């Protein structure tokens, strides 16, 4: 269990809400959705980690209440905001377990945006304030969902160019085309594990080992789903200076005479490295290897650099032409581009190779900060909003419906308009559709109870999730 105090894992303004809800409030029901954003589809992933690490079991104790009381007196500078009796009640009545029910779409499910993905409601009327108190923490599921979504969208791009230019035999390697290089660019170890495991739903290549740890620890992955290979860095390649670069290249080949190995080759002159060292003086050793040398450029314009590299490599090593009419290097030589890779740059790279007659199967990618860090909650416009309440025994459908002013001062309906009433997710004609519970009589709700009163009720394995997210 995490060392963090759950009572302190909320935005400060939440602690005043128990007083601000209208007297007589008994139940608050809220839902999560992607309100749109960069991609038309979204992958739901990562809630199980939050449930296991932060919410399950006894999470409210006297010691934690004491700590929170002291901290929040400092935060607010007054004694009438935090009410410890609200949390003491959870200990007395529920043994420190959270009286809430969370339903969610099975993890790995891909839906169009604007669909309900998760709902939460209190199960004890005296804890009406708890539903949205938990919003701050639960809302962070936007992060693994967004990484999983973007990674999957990149896989769509990769599939497109493989379908257009790659040989049928090469399709088995698609899972290793996009490799996660993002650990050092992530904001925390938790981010790297959570977001890195989200990427592994779609691809198997990763240097972020903590991502596999998360998949095994929280999702019962039977073995590390993120795989990697030996590879050099510039500190290795530059130890003998520019005159000694070729010697180090040969040492790399000697150190791993079989299997796949990657070697960064732009320390001084990437064209010379490909033309003279790899493509001439070390050519025979490379072609005799039982394995693949993956040459890595790491600077310059990605498109122009790759076009020039492939021009040199096809000239030096030769090539075959696959059944779709595109050039393929010998299996002992491939290229990895790990600099400047993002969702926006990848299509241009593959399109340039296609126009040059180079098959997509010659290239793999490494993606760092753009994969795990260059995302935010607004990438897919995630929001958690109240849609239903019970006040003094009366059911109330709740809705936010702002009237906005645009840049010209004209009024418009906001995309932030929320759903009204309890929601269900149903399948119609093979597609997910969200509708009010009152309109879904006889239809199966795809949302599953995953957490209730401190217990995880449904859990998913990593293999389950990968299967659901398949393109």
UniProtKB/TrEMBL annotation:
InterPro entries: Aldolase_TIM, DUF5598, N/Namide_PRibTrfase, Nicotinamide_PRibTrfase, Nicotinate_pribotase-like_C
Entry's EC annotation: 2.4.2.12
Amino acids binding beta-nicotinamide D-ribonucleotide: 207, 296-298, 338-339, 369, 377
Enzyme class: transferase
Domain named Nicotinate/nicotinamide phosphoribosyltransferase: residues: 176-403
UniProt keyword annotations, A-Z: Glycosyltransferase, Ligase, Pyridine nucleotide biosynthesis, Transferase
Protein's name in the database: Nicotinamide phosphoribosyltransferase
Assigned protein family: Belongs to the NAPRTase family.
Pathway the protein takes part in: Cofactor biosynthesis; NAD(+) biosynthesis; nicotinamide D-ribonucleotide from 5-phospho-alpha-D-ribose 1-diphosphate and nicotinamide: step 1/1
Biological process (GO), any one: NAD+ biosynthetic process
Taxonomic lineage from the root: Bacteria, Pseudomonadati, Bacteroidota, Chitinophagia, Chitinophagales
Residues engaged in binding diphosphate: 184, 234, 296
UniProt GO molecular function: ligase activity; nicotinamide phosphoribosyltransferase activity
One Pfam family this sequence matches: NAMPT_N
Domain Nicotinamide phosphoribosyltransferase N-terminal: start-end pairs: 5-102
Catalytic activity field: beta-nicotinamide D-ribonucleotide + diphosphate = 5-phospho-alpha-D-ribose 1-diphosphate + nicotinamide + H(+)
């Amino acid at each position: 269990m995490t060392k963090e105090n759950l009572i302190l894992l909320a935005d400060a303004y939440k602690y005043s809400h128990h007083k601000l809800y209208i007297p007589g409030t008994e139940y608050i029901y809220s839902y999560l959705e992607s309100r749109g954003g960069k991609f038309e589809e979204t992958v739901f992933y990562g809630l199980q980690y939050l449930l296991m690490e932060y919410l399950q079991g006894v999470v409210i104790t006297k010691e934690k209440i004491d700590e929170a009381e002291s901290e929040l007196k400092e935060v607010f500078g007054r004694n009438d905001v935090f009410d410890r009796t609200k949390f003491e009640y959870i200990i007395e009545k529920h043994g420190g377990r959270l009286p809430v029910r969370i339903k969610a779409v099975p993890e790995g499910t891909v839906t169009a945006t604007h669909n309900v993905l998760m709902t939460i409601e209190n199960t004890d009327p005296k804890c009406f304030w708890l539903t949205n108190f938990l919003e701050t923490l639960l809302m962070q599921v936007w992060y693994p969902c967004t990484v999983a979504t973007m990674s999957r969208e990149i896989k769509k791009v990769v599939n497109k160019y493989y379908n257009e230019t790659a040989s049928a035999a090469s399709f088995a390697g698609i899972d290793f085309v996009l490799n996660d290089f993002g650990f050092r660019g992530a904001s925390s170890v938790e981010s790297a594990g959570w977001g890195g495991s989200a990427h592994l739903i779609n691809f198997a290549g990763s240097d972020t080992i903590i991502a596999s740890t998360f998949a095994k620890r929280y999702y019962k992955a039977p073995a590390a789903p993120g795989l990697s290979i030996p590879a050099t860095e510039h500190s290795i390649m530059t130890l003998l200076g520019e005159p000694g670069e070729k010697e180090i290249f040969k040492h790399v080949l000697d150190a791993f005479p079989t299997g796949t190995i990657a070697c960064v080759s732009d320390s001084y002159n990437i064209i010379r490295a490909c033309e003279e060292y790899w493509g001439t003086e070390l050519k025979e050793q490379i072609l005799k290897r039982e394995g693949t040398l993956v040459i890595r450029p790491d600077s310059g314009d990605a498109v122009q650099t790759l076009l020039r590299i492939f021009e040199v490599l096809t000239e030096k090593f030769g090539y075959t032409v696959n059944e779709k009419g595109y050039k393929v290097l010998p299996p002992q030589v491939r290229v990895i581009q790990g600099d400047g890779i993002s969702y926006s740059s990848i299509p241009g790279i593959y399109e340039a190779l296609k126009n040059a007659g180079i098959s997509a199967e010659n290239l793999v990618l490494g993606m760092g900060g753009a994969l795990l860090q260059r995302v935010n909650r607004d990438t897919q416009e995630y929001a958690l909003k109240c849609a239903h309440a019970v006040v003094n025994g009366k059911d109330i459908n709740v809705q936010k419906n702002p009237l906005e002013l645009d840049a010209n001062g004209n009024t418009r309906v906001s995309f932030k308009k929320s759903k009204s009433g309890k929601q269900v997710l149903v399948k119609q004609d093979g597609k997910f559709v969200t509708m009010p519970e009152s309109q879904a009589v006889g239809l199966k709700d795809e949302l599953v109870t995953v957490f209730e009163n401190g217990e995880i009720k449904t859990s998913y394995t990593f293999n389950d999730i990968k299967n659901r997210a398949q393109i």
